[in-house]
C-alpha cells in the first residue's frame, strides 16, 4: 500500500482544533480508497514554540520538512504575544520561499446551504491560479532621501520562467475542469510587464489549442467576479492581482472559515503546503466552535494534488451535504460545534 508521509504543523489558535478534524476526514478518505494511507508527523512549531525558544521553527526546520511528501498547515499567529511579522516571516513565508512554492491556488464555489453575499448568484465554480514568487511582490526597490525629497521605488519583476510556469499550470488544470482559462491583465495601463504577460499567455496558449482562452483587464475582471462569477473556470493572475482576486473569490463564497488554499511546488522537487485561507482566530480559539470546513477542503486539495481527484470530489460533496443539512458553525449562522460538523462530514463520506 502506498504511504504518504505528511508533515503536520497545526500552528496556533484554531489551527490546533481544525487540523485534527481534517486529518480524521482524510484518514477516512484514504481508508475508503484502500490503495494508500497517510502517515502524519506533527511539529509543534508556531508562536508557543517561539515563546519557548525565540524561533518559530528550529534552524534545520526546512531540512526536516524536505523529508516529507507534503505539508499540512493550520494557521499561525498570536498577535497579542508575538508580532505578526515575526510569526509570518519566521514560518509561513520561509516555507513558501525556500520550498519554491511558486503557485498559489484557491478555488471558489457556490455551495448548497452556504448563502453567498451576492444577491442572486448563479452556480459558480472557479479556481484562481496566482503566481506566488515574483511580480509586484518581488523584493526589489528602495527608498532614498527624506522629507519632501523622499523617493520610494518598488520594482515589479516578471520572469519568462515564472510567468510561463503559472500559465502552463492554469491550462493544465483547465484540462481537468471546464476547459477555459482567463488571464488577468492590465496591459492598457501597465506598460512593460503586462504586455509581456499577455504575449506569454498567447505563446503558452498555442500549446493548449483545445482550451478556451481570453485576456481580461483586472478591473473588469473584479467587477465580473461580482456580476457573473459563473462565467469563469480557471483564472491565471500575477501575484498582486491574484492576491486581490482570491480574497474576492472567498468573499463571494460566503465565509472565510470555509475557503481553502494550496501553495504548490509544481515541479514536485519539494513538498507543497496546504493551508486554509483563514488565520488562527484567537477570538474563538479553544472553544470548539471553529469551522473545520476550510481545513477539510484544504485536505481535499491535497488529495487532488496527489492525484486522487475522485476522492477529493467525494470529500467536497460531503462538505456540501453537511451544509445543505444545516449543520453549520456560528460563523455561518449556525449553532453546531466543530465536532458536530466533523462528524457530519464523516457520515456523508461513506
Ligand atoms: N495562513 C495563516 O497562517 C494566517 C492567515 C491569516 C491570518 N493569520 C494570523 O492569524 C491571526 C488572526 O488574524 P485575523 O484575526 O486577522 O484573521 P482570522 O482569519 O484568524 O480571523 C478573522 C475572523 O474570522 C473568524 N474566523 C476565521 N476562521 C474561522 C473559522 N475557521 N471558523 C470560524 N470563524 C473563523 C475569526 O473568528 C475572526 O472573527 C493573526 O496573527 C494573523 O497574522 C494567519
UniProtKB/TrEMBL annotation:
InterPro entries recorded: ICDH/IPMDH, IsoCit/isopropylmalate_DH_CS, IsoPropMal-DH-like_dom, TTC_DH
EC numbers for this chain: 1.1.1.83
Pfam families: Iso_dh
Gene Ontology molecular function: tartrate dehydrogenase activity
Family annotation (SMART domains): Iso_dh
Reaction catalysis annotation: (R)-malate + NAD(+) = pyruvate + CO2 + NADH
Keywords: Manganese, Metal-binding, NAD, Oxidoreductase
Listed Gene3D superfamilies: Isopropylmalate Dehydrogenase
Domain Isopropylmalate dehydrogenase-like residue range list: 5-345
Cofactor(s) this protein requires: Mn(2+); Mg(2+)
Enzyme category, top tier: oxidoreductase
Name used for this protein in its record: D-malate dehydrogenase (decarboxylating)
Organism the protein comes from: Lysinibacillus pakistanensis
Lineage, uppermost ranks: Bacteria, Bacillati, Bacillota, Bacilli, Bacillales
Amino acid at each position: 500500500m502506498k504511504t504518504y508521509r505528511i508533515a503536520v504543523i497545526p500552528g496556533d489558535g484554531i489551527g490546533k482544533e481544525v487540523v485534527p478534524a481534517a486529518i480524521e476526514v482524510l484518514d477516512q478518505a484514504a481508508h475508503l480508497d484502500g490503495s494508500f494511507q497517510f502517515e502524519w508527523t506533527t511539529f509543534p512549531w508556531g508562536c508557543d514554540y517561539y515563546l519557548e525558544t525565540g524561533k518559530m521553527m528550529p534552524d534545520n526546520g526546512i531540512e526536516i520538512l524536505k523529508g516529507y511528501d507534503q505539508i499540512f498547515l493550520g494557521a499561525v499567529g498570536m498577535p497579542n504575544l508575538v508580532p505578526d511579522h515575526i510569526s509570518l516571516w519566521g514560518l509561513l513565508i520561509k516555507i513558501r520561499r525556500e520550498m519554491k512554492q511558486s503557485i498559489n491556488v484557491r478555488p471558489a464555489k457556490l455551495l448548497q446551504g452556504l448563502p453567498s453575499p451576492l444577491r442572486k448568484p448563479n452556480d459558480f465554480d472557479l479556481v484562481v491560479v496566482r503566481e506566488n514568487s515574483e511580480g509586484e511582490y518581488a523584493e526589489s526597490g528602495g527608498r532614498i532621501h527624506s522629507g519632501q525629497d523622499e523617493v520610494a521605488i518598488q520594482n515589479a519583476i516578471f520572469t519568462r520562467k515564472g510567468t510561463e510556469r503559472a500559465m502552463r499550470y492554469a491550462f493544465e488544470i483547465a484540462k481537468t475542469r471546464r476547459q477555459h482559462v482567463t488571464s488577468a491583465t492590465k496591459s492598457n495601463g501597465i506598460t512593460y510587464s503586462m504586455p509581456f504577460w499577455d504575449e506569454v499567455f498567447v505563446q503558452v496558449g498555442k500549446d493548449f489549442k483545445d482550451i478556451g482562452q481570453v485576456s481580461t483587464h483586472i478591473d473588469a475582471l473584479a467587477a465580473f467576479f461580482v456580476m457573473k462569477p459563473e462565467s469563469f473556470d480557471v483564472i491565471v493572475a500575477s501575484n498582486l492581482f491574484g492576491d486581490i482576486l482570491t480574497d474576492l473569490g472567498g468573499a463571494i463564497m460566503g465565509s472565510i472559515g470555509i475557503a481553502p488554499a494550496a501553495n504548490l511546488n509544481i515541479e514536485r522537487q519539494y513538498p507543497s503546503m496546504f493551508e486554509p485561507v483563514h488565520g488562527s482566530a484567537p477570538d474563538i480559539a479553544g472553544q470548539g466552535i471553529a469551522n473545520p470546513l476550510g481545513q477539510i477542503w484544504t485536505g481535499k486539495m491535497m488529495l487532488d494534488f496527489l492525484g486522487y481527484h475522485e476522492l477529493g470530489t467525494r470529500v467536497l460533496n460531503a462538505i456540501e451535504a453537511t451544509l445543505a443539512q444545516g449543520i453549520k458553525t456560528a460563523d455561518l449562522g449556525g449553532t453546531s460545534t466543530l465536532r458536530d460538523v466533523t462528524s457530519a462530514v464523516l457520515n456523508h463520506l461513506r
